[in-house]
Amino acid sequence: MSTKPVLATSSLLTLPATKENHKWATPFAILAADWVALSVMYWLAVLGRYLVSPGYTLGFYLHLYPIIGIFIAAFFVCGLYPGILLHPAEEVRRVFYCASSLFTLIAATAFLFHNAATYSRSVFLITWAAVAPFVLLARYIARRRFAAESWFGVAAVVFGSGPVAKRVIRSLQDPKLGVRITGVLTDGQPNTWEADLPPIVGSLSSASEIAANHAASYAIIVLPEKSSAEISQIIRCRCIGFERVLFVPDLPGICSLGISAREISGSVGFEVAQPLFHAGARAVKRVTDLLLSAFGLMLLAPLMLTLAAIIKITSRGPVFFRNKRYGLGGTMFHVLKFRTMVTNGDEVLETYFKVHPDQSLHWQMHHKLKKDPRVTRIGRWLRRFSIDELPQLINVLSGEMSLVGPRPILPEEVEKYGVSYNTYARVRPGMTGLWQVSGRNNTAYEERISFAEYYVHNWSIWLDLYTLARTVRVVFTGDGAY
Q1: How far apart are CA 343 and CA 365, in angstroms?
Q2: CA dihedral 305, 306, 311, 314 (to 10 degrees)
Q3: 2-9+151-250: in CATH 3.30.750.24
Q4: 223-262 burial by CB neighbour count: b if 16+ within 10 A, else e?
């Protein structure tokens, strides 16, 4: 449903002024979450070491406890407070690098002052390994807990009302992101304005009044129809008084993580990273795949053998299902899965479509059926929690797949990818990926393609770690699996 907007300067009165005490509420909430996480992690490591070797005095570590304040200060320097509009992968990177730098400094200081023997190596290593997971989990819990509170986040106004601006606004409507779009400023009156979008509160000339009234801290400029000269004029004249100004160009598909601004003779240039196209980055990714897949196979071997026996006993046919997919460089390979379907699946599917012809069109479009008649009873359980994909660890170990990457596609899907297939073929497909942790089968096919492009252009080891962490939650909840 849509309504016609009314542009009126009086609408500015509906924007609440930002209270000064609210200004610090969000960073304080995140800081408190960090302090709790660091404290819990620290004392768990110390108490664990004390239980193993009671000879250690807890009083010594009580004197060391205030060192947590140094971590908080370092996080502040790294821009982790309030952490607004910080991509999770970038947050993982900053927390890890910041904590690792501090632990390196602590170790060097202990060595230089000849008191390294005073410290427990196990406590040191455990706390170093646990800092990032504990802090990131605490931040996630804090954002979920406080997202609905009126004081959480920063107030922002969006300059622009076109399709790109609407897309940006909708993406920011998740309260956990910490941005509250309190109003929209537009240079003209759009024909329609959806009711679920923030109100249009005035024209671009109203920006200075909003800033003066402290009604918003952020100005987000989404005006792709404007020339560079016009954008420059808007930033210089309309954005005075805002604490932060974000300019969002319409550059879909371009790498956004790790992008850097460069000054070139008074002009602004953006360096667009191409991480997966560097030999060093590919080597790091491959080594990570080898180590984690080998460890995973050893750890999960008893479970996989048990499942293989159950599949063999409960239905006719082989234990594994091999399916042709396109991989790196357009080469074909057989993706491995535990068999979850009956062996005469084509006949069963043909009969099913005769009874349910409406499902035939859905199959042609998505190659998925929510209630697939070919799936066995044990197969439904395996698919529900993605356990049928565990044999793909063998594909990863052999170099045909990666732990994280685009969803492997069937030969008949290449045409649907169009020019995006060239991007897909530049990397190994993954056991998991952005598609799997963003709704899986509940997403449209076009979204799956965009997830693949986004991953290739924005890859980092931190994006992989973030995706793997989200995969654990998705597997346990079974979101979008069928």
Answers
A1: 24
A2: 150
A3: no
A4: beebeeeebeebbeebbebbeeebbbeeeeeebebbeeee
The answer to whether 466 and 89 have CB atoms below 8 angstroms apart is yes
pLDDT tens-digit series, residues 210-252: 888 888 889 999 998 888 889 889 998 889 889 899 998 887 6
Q: pLDDT tens, 442-467?
A: 677 788 888 888 888 888 888 999 99
DSSP 319: S
How far is the C-alpha of 434 from the C-alpha of 468, rounded, in Å? 10
* Interval 288-312: pLDDT, tens: 999 999 999 999 999 999 999 999 9
Q: What is the pTM of this model?
A: 0.77
Q: Which residues have C-beta within 8 Å of that of residue 457, sequence separation ≥ 6? A: 253, 254, 255, 274, 423
Q: Where do the domains of the chain lie?
A: 2-9+151-250, 23-146, 279-340+375-477
Do 427 and 464 meet the contact criterion of CB atoms below 8 Å apart?
no
Q: Which residue has the tokens 């732990």?
A: 403
